[in-house]
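Q: I have three molecules that I believe assemble together. Could you output C-alpha cells for the complex as a whole instead of separate predictions?
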Amino acid sequence: MKSAEEDAYSHTPNTSVSLGKSCLPSQYHSLQSGPTISVSISQPPSYSAQNDMRTVGYYSSPSIHPTEAPVLESPRIEITAYGQFPEEEVEESNNLPLPKQVNSIVTLTLPNADGYRDPSCLSPASSVSSRSCHSEASSYESGFSYNYENSPQNSPWQSPCVSPKGSSSLALPGEACTHAGYPHNSPSTSPLSSVMDDSWMGQRGSRPNSPCGGKRKYSFNGTTTSKSPYSPNHSPGPSPHTSPRLSVTDESWMPNNTNQYTNSAIVAAINALTTDGVADLGEGIPLKARKTSLEPGAVCLKVEPGREELSPGELCQDEYSSSRLPLKKENYCGGLLDVPSHPYSWSKPKQYVSPSLPALDWQLPSSSGPYSLQIEVQPKSHHRAHYETEGSRGAVKALAGGHPVVQLHGYMETEPLILQLFIGTADDRLLRPHAFYQVHRITGKTVSTPSHETLQSNTKVLEIPLLPENNMRAIIDCSGILKLRNSDIELRKGETDIGRKNTRVRMVFRVHINQSTGRTLSLQTASNPMECSQRSAQELPLVDKQTLQTCPAAGGEKMLLSGHNFQHNSKVVFMEKAQDGHHLWETEAKVDKDSSKSTSLRIEIPPYRNQRISSPVQVKFYVCNGKRKRSQYQGFTYVPANVPMIKMEPHDDCDPPQVCPKHCPVLALHPKPYYTPQVMTSMIPTELRMGGAYPACQQRLGGKPSSLSCSSSPSTSPKLHDLSPTTPFSMCLSAGPSQSPIPHVSIIQETPGRYQPQSVLYPPSSAASSPGSQPSTPSTSGPEAPFSPTHCLTPPQPISGSSSPVTEQLPKVPERGGRSSSPTLANNIKQEPQELDQMYLDDVNEIIRNDLSSISVHSHA
DNA sequence: GTCCTGGAATAAGAT
DNA sequence: AGATCTTATTCCAGG
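A: Yes, here they are, computed for all three components at once.
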C-alpha cells in the first residue's frame, strides 16, 4: 500500500482529483493503486464553506500560477468540484452552502514530478512523519536552514523569516493524504478520517507525528467512525474519540500563496471543496483547538451565542469568519456553548465599532495621549500549555499567585471597552500571533472574568470586558494556552516558523478606544515572555530580569539575575558575536553561589575584552545549566569607562538602547532587551501620519525614546496608532502610489548566525495587492492573500480613503508568512534575508552604523 | 465527572 | 548507520 501510494505520488504526472463525499475514501484509496486521484464533490456542502470555497477559488483562480512549477512539466491535479463556489461568490455565499457552480475544474499545476515528491517523504501510510518531510521541504524550498547556533537554546527566536517559496511538493503526499482523509472537513468528526487512519495508518504508532498520519491510536477504533461522516452536523462524534484531532492542516490553515500550488494548495483546494462548516470553524484553529471547547458532535470553537456579536473589527478583518459565523452557530454551535452569565453582556454592542482594526501582527503602541494599556501583574514566566489531546492545564497565572492583571489607564469614559488577548511570539522579531500557540478560554468556578472567544486571522482572540466600574482593570484568569502540534502548523502554507523549540510566547493585550473624533485608537501591550513547554519549564534556565543593562568595559559591577531554574552550578556566559555570527569573545562571569538561588543569580560583570572601547558595545549573555541547557540570550552593553551615560542608539542589530542601568532602573529591570525593532517599527506610523513619508532612518531614530527603554513591554511601542474610520487598514491595500515616497525602511534584526537586515516596505497600493510586488515574500500574500483582499475591502469606508497617506497603523511585516492574514500584509513586504546579498547587507549596515554614530554624537552633545 | 496538574512514557528528531 | 541525547506529544494518575 505504501509503496503503491508513494508511487502514485511520486510518479504520477497528472493527478485528477475530484472530491466526492461519498466516494472520497474509496477514491482516495484508489490513489494508492493508481496515479489518478479523482475526488468529486457531488454533494453540496451543507455547511458554511466560505473559507474553503474561498480557498478553492483562490486556488482555482486562473491567474494564479505556481511561480516555480514549470507548467508543462509539472504533475497536475485536476479538481473537479461539483458545486464549487466561484471565487467571487464565495464571499457572499454565507447562506449558500450549495454550489453555484457545477463541475468547476481546478487545475493545479505541481512542480515537476521530480521535485514534486521527495523519496523520503512517504505517504501517510508510511510511518514517516510528514513533519519531517514537510520541514525538510520547507527548509529546502526556502533555501534557508535554521541555525540554532545563534541562540543558546536554539531558539526559535531565530526562526527564519523566510517565506516559503511555494512549492513544497515534498509535502504533497502527506498533505494530500491528510486532506483527502478529511474531505468533509469535519476534521474532528469525520469518520473518514478514521477510516483513513485505519487503513492508512494502522501501522503507525499511536503518536501521530505528522499531519498525515497524525492520529491517536484511540481514534482508530471503529467506533470512531460515525454514521454520517460527511456532515459535520451529523458529527457523530459524541465520543471524544471521534477524531481526537485532525490535521490542523486543513484548508483553513493553508495560506493561499499565489505561488504555492503545492501539495498544500492542492490539498487545500480539495478540502475547500469538501469541507463543511466544521472545518472552517476554526479556520485558523486546529481542529483540536476547537475540540477543546466542543462537546461531542459539536465541532467548533467555543463560539458562544454571543459570538454573533462579533466586533466590527472582527467582522471586518475576518469577513469570512463573520460571514461564516452565522452558519456555524446555527449549524453547530447553537446552544452548545454558553457563556457563563456575567454582568457584562457580550451582546452589548462593542465599543470599537471601527470597521477595520489593525491586524494582529501589527505593532501598536501601549500608550497614547492619556491612555495607557498596562500589564499590572505579569504572568509567570512558565506556563505549560496543553495540547489538543490533553485537558486544559488551567489559566495562566501570575508569579505571585493569582492571575495577570491588565489595566487601561487614562480612560475616563463610561463606556466599557473590550480587551483583546491573543498569544504572541516572544522571539526577537516583531511581535505577531504565535503560530504554535493559541489562547484558550478558561471557564469555570475559578474564573471570575467573563470572556469571549473569537477568531481573527487564524488566531484565537479572547475578548474580555474592560469596565469603568472596575477601573478599566481586568484580571486575566480566563486564559489558558493551547499548544498546536508543530507538524500541523508547519504544514500550513506560508508558515515559515518552525515549532521545534519555539516554545516561548507572550500574552498580547489590545484595546480599541473610540474617540470623539470618530477615530479609533488601538493600544497594545505584551507580557513578558512565557515558556510553554513542559521540559523547558522544568529544565532550562530562564532570565526574567537583570538589574543592569550596561556597565563600563572594566566590568566588576554586580548584577542580579532573576528567573527560574538556576542551579548551583549555573554559569553565566558573556559573549559577543560579529555580524556574521562569529563568536568574537566569550567569557564566564563570576557567579556568587552563596547568594544565588534557583530564582536568582548574583554575578559579577566580567571585563570586556577591550577596555578601550570608544562607543558602547552590545554583547549578550546567557545562563547555562549544562550542555544544551541554556537560557536565551540576554542583552548587555559595555560602555566606555569615561562615558557616564549615553542614550545610545541601537547597535547594528537594533538591540535595545543602551542606557545605563543606573540611570534607568526601570530599563535595567527589563527582562527582554531585544525588542527594539518592534518599537522602532511602531514608530513609523506616526511618521507616516505626520507627513506621509519618513526617512529610512526614522525607525532607528524614532525608536529610541527614553520611554522605550523603560517600557515595560517589549512589544509596546510608544507611538500612537490612531485609527480613523476613514482610513481603514484596508486602505493600505489600495493606497495610492503617490504615497510613501520612501516606502522602504530597513532595520536590522538578529537572525540565526548573523545580523540580517530586514526590509519593511510600504509599497504603493498597487504593489500591495500585486503578487508580483512581493518578489521575495510569496508568503506575504500567500497564506492569507485570498482573504486579505476581502478583509481590506471590507471597510465600510470607500477605499478612496486609501488614497490618503498610509494608514496610521504600522503594519508590521508579517514574518511568518502564514500568520498574518491581514490585508495589510499585502502592503507590507518584508524582504527575505536571502533576498539580500551580502553586499547589500553591508551597505545597509554601514548606513545604519553611520546614522547611529551621528546620533550618538548628537546625544553626547 | 470535569478540571487541573505533575510526571513520565515514548516516538520523532537532532547530533 | 547506529548510538545517544533532545524535544514533542500523548498518557496516566491523583487532587
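A: One point stands out. The radius of gyration of chain A is 26 Å.
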